[in-house]
Write a structure and sequence with these properties.
Elements (H helix, E strand, L loop, with lengths): L6 H12 L1 H37 L5 E4 L12 H7 L15 H9 L4 E16 L2 E10 L1 H4 L9 E4 L7 E5 H7 L6 E6 L3 E11 L4 H6 E5 H7 L8 E6 L5 H12 L2 E4 H4 L1 H39 L1 H9 L4 H37 L15 H27 L3 H6 L1
Parallel strand pairs: 3-8, 5-7
Antiparallel strand pairs: 1-9, 1-10, 2-3, 2-6, 2-9, 4-7, 5-8, 6-7
Helix pairs in contact: 1-13, 2-11, 2-13, 2-14, 11-14, 13-14
């Protein structure tokens, strides 16, 4: 095998074999460091994805709303009266987005946009016998809206059928009113009378408040109930890159003039927490990598001192400084590669054990952990490059040794 290896690799492997204990301990240290990086990266990525999935499966990435009404003082009576005027903010009544069909077409044509769905929503009163509850009525087009909010996944009983005479309600509202699948409810609004609708599905939206107040009807039914004949109160948008939602919202706002609220702006504290989690993950990787680099460097510095006589003899025999440099760089790279391979295996085992034993009370995993090959490849590459970088200073010192001084020492 040695016949096919370059001279520098043969010497590097021999030096590593001669210092077996040093090699073993530093490889073990690198393995632990890489295992921590692999496990923590996958764990934090899975946790972050789970949080984002829970938040964004219940809301759109961007919501388009009609511009808010603004009160202005009348310019009557001169500047003095105008300065003394008291301007009260107007009541924000329910109104439709102007020319919403063309707006939907315009937004859907943007390359960053994935799905667009128009909705009509407002407040109403649900009545059954002597019982009544104030609810939020959301009129949707199921074909597009279900691609934004996965209502079929939240269905407890019944179906997601939504004809103009159907309604979907939360489980807690159904319990409060004592209704089930097939029962009828009278839905009344202040603006356009009332309608009698049949309950076709019960939903669990993830919180008691949402289950008590949220109802879904067909878009035309909501338009009739809320007095928005032919109009919509909002347009829901999902984008291909969720972290670009605020940028896309600003573009839509500047191009159309409508209010565009992204999930990043409406969930500012949550987004800050996600960013802090990313920062902590990067910090962990950096300091673990730094400890690995110092470990490799310290071992190679000791190796240079121990092998000074051998290096002097090799230099006296005619090998160049560049070859000595490459010998120690190879040692660093091999240590990093060996430790990374073992650490990746340890990290993979830890992830599999986590998925097996970290379970919810119902036996399902706490959250899915992504096991991506590129994570392991990146760890191998990072550890190898770290080994090379850490070995540079000891390798440079070895290459500068004077043969005569080294042999006498």
């Amino acid at each position: 095998m040695n016949r096919w290896l370059p001279f520098e690799a043969i010497v590097a492997l021999r030096f590593l074999r001669e210092g077996r204990m040093q090699t073993l301990f530093i490889a073990a240290g690198i393995s632990i460091g890489v295992a921590v990086i692999v496990f923590m990266s996958a764990l934090l990525t899975g946790l972050q994805s789970n949080f984002i999935r829970r938040v964004l499966t219940a809301q759109p990435h961007i919501q388009l709303l009609p511009p808010k009404e603004v009160a202005r003082a009348l310019g009557v009576g001169g500047p003095a009266l105008l300065e003394a005027a008291v301007v009260q903010a107007p009541l924000q009544r329910l109104k439709s987005i102007d020319q919403w069909q063309s707006l939907v077409t315009q937004v859907r044509a943007m390359p960053e946009v994935a799905v667009v769905s128009a909705t009509a929503s407002g407040s109403a009163l649900v009545i059954r016998g002597a019982a009544s509850r104030a609810v939020s009525v959301i009129g949707i087009d199921p074909a597009s809206y279900f691609r934004i909010v996965a209502l079929p996944e939240k269905m407890v009983r019944g179906t997601t059928r939504l004809t103009p005479a159907d309604i979907l309600i939360g489980t807690d509202l159904a319990s409060d009113l004592g209704v089930g699948i097939g029962d009828k409810l009278r839905v009344s609004s202040a603006s356009a009378g009332d309608q009698t609708l049949m309950v076709t599905g019960l939903l669990d939206l993830g919180s008691k408040a949402a289950n008590q107040r949220t109802t879904y009807v067909a878009l035309r039914t909501a338009q009739s109930l809320l007095g928005l004949v032919g109009g919509v109160s909002s347009i829901e948008v999902t984008v291909k890159d969720i972290y670009a939602a605020e940028t896309v919202a600003l573009r839509i706002r500047s191009a159309t003039g409508v209010e565009a609220d992204s999930w990043i702006a409406t969930n500012a504290q949550f987004f800050t927490a996600v960013q802090a989690q990313k920062t902590s993950n990067t910090t962990i990787r950096f300091f673990v990598g730094l400890s690995v680099a110092f470990g490799i460097a310290s071992v190679l510095v000791v190796s240079v001192v121990q092998k000074s006589r051998e290096i002097g003899i090799l230099r006296a025999m005619g090998i160049s400084r560049g070859q000595v440099l490459r010998v120690f760089l190879l040692q660093g790279g091999l240590l990093g590669l060996l430790g990374a391979a073992c650490g990746s295996c340890i990290g993979l085992v830890a992830l599999l054990l986590w998925q097996r034993y970290a379970l919810n009370p119902d036996g399902t995993p706490l959250f899915p952990l992504p096991i991506e090959p590129r994570l392991f490849l990146a760890s191998l590459l990072l550890a190898t490059l770290t080994g090379l970088a850490a070995a540079f200073a000891p390798a440079l010192r070895a290459a500068r040794l004077d043969p005569v001084v080294a042999i006498r020492g």
